[in-house]
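User: Reviewer 2 asked us to show a designed sequence for the structure in our supplementary figure. I'm pasting the structure tokens here. Could you produce the per-position amino acids so we can include them in the response letter?
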């Protein structure tokens, strides 16, 4: 390690243990069971808010990983609480899979099967197993892997469909969120199947799982990545025709290191040789979204020539990890500087030093966004918590 990465490691561990995780342990534990569903952008608890699968699965992953690294019993208690919520409340005991949401009392209200949510449940459960060797968590992670393969994988044209009804039938509205296009295949869901499959493979060396990870990596480099711009394409029809020309800078940089992580975990020398130049191309393309202050803008609609210049918490977190990954594996000092610049932007603009956690985003002029949540369906401790823990592990 050099002085820069040593300082970075100490700073992120302090933010993880004194800013991010205490927010969730002190403010989000619901006495009725599980976790509250929302704290708004003004730090007000909305106790009656619905509870999302993504939030709960990401809490499970974050506190499991924190316990694995730091062995603090309070982290294990939160992780175990989240594991119980996923298995006892979100898991569909009749049809399998994970419900999309519960009401504030833990009763299922949206029972659709969004494959993205199943992926995050696998991510959390497999991490809990890594931290504790709990067999029940591994068993449920494997069940969900089998559900995805049985009901989402396109055996004819390859890839994974977005969503189904509760009993695995066709569903008209497949969108992950209101801002997404209603297409049957998306980059985002494929990325967040690759991510949990890689983590599951760390603890379960199943041959079919290995083959599907390899297949997902190939889909990213041959179908999802644009061959000329090297940005990731976002929405596809069944035949892998790209439907919209939108650049997501955060997903570009996040994918660059998650694809690399998957190939490293497979230990396939030929695949690594093939993808190493590709992930550097993706990271380089993502840098088009960097600002003079070191932050990363959200996305660009190429057709409309319009850029969403807001600087979201998750995009900044993935920017730091993505460029540190390029520095760590390829010795690129410029990428180290990009990571440090973004971390400095985070410290100066996104971390809430008064109330804990990070803001959803700031505008390009530095104005804070208090409209979007501090905690909720999508605002979770996973991106920023993972950034801290990636740095802690990479630069021990």
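Assistant: Here is a per-position design you can include in the supplement:
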């Amino acid at each position: 390690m050099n002085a820069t990465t040593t300082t970075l490691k100490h700073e992120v561990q302090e933010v993880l243990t004194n800013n991010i995780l205490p927010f969730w342990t002190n403010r989000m534990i619901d006495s009725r069971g599980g976790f509250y569903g929302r704290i708004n952008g003004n730090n007000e608890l909305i106790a009656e808010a619905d509870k999302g699968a993504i939030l709960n699965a990401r809490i499970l992953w974050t506190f499991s990983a924190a316990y694995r690294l730091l062995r603090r019993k309070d982290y294990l208690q939160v992780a175990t609480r989240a594991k119980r919520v996923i298995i006892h409340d979100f898991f569909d005991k009749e049809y399998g899979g994970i419900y999309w949401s519960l009401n504030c009392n833990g009763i299922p209200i949206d029972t659709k099967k969004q494959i993205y949510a199943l992926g995050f449940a696998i991510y959390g459960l497999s991490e809990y197993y890594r931290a504790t060797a709990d067999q029940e968590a591994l068993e449920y992670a494997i069940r969900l892997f089998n559900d995805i393969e049985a009901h989402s994988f396109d055996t004819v044209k390859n890839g994974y469909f977005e969503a189904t009804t509760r009993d695995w039938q066709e569903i008209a509205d497949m969108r992950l969120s209101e801002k997404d296009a209603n297409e049957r295949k998306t980059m985002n869901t494929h990325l967040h199947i690759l991510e949990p499959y890689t983590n599951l493979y760390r603890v379960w060396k199943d041959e079919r799982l290995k083959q599907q990870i390899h297949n997902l990596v190939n889909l990213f480099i041959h179908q999802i990545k644009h061959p000329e711009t090297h940005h990731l394409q976002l929405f596809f029809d069944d035949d892998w025709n790209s439907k919209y020309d939108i650049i997501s800078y955060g997903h570009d940089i996040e994918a660059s290191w998650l694809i690399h992580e998957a190939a490293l975990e497979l230990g396939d020398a030929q695949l690594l040789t093939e993808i190493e130049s590709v992930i550097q191309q993706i990271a380089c393309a993502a840098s088009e979204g960097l600002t003079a202050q070191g932050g990363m803008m959200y996305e660009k609609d190429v057709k409309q020539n319009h850029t969403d210049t807001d600087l979201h918490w998750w995009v900044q977190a993935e920017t730091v990890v993505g460029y540190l990954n390029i520095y760590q594996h390829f010795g690129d000092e410029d990428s180290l500087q990009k990571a440090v610049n973004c971390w400095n932007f985070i410290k100066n603009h996104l971390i809430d030093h008064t109330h804990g956690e990070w803001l959803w985003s700031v505008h390009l002029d530095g104005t804070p966004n208090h409209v979007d949540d501090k905690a909720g369906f999508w605002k979770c401790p996973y991106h920023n918590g993972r950034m801290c823990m990636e740095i802690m592990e990479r630069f021990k």
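For the response letter, you might also mention the following. The radius of gyration is 20 Å. The chain has a mean pLDDT of 97.
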